[in-house]
Design brief:
Elements (H helix, E strand, L loop, with lengths): L1 E3 L4 H10 L3 E9 L13 E8 L4
Antiparallel strand pairs: 1-3, 2-3
Length: 55
């Protein structure tokens, strides 16, 4: 399980596949408060679910 914001989700999925993992699903973690450091703060994180082939 790896968390990332929407800006880098393509890189996250590509790196998991390059590492030999199978992409299973994309889940949304709805947080209580938005994050810091941006004008538009995300109140959610995207969670990529991978699995090892054959597992």
């Amino acid at each position: 399980m790896i968390c990332m914001d929407w800006r880098h989700i393509e890189e996250l999925i590509a790196s998991g596949k390059a590492g030999g993992l199978d992409f299973i699903n994309l889940c949304v973690w709805n947080k209580t408060n938005g994050g810091m450091g941006s004008l538009y703060r995300s109140k959610h994180e995207l969670v990529a679910i991978f699995k090892k082939p054959g597992a």
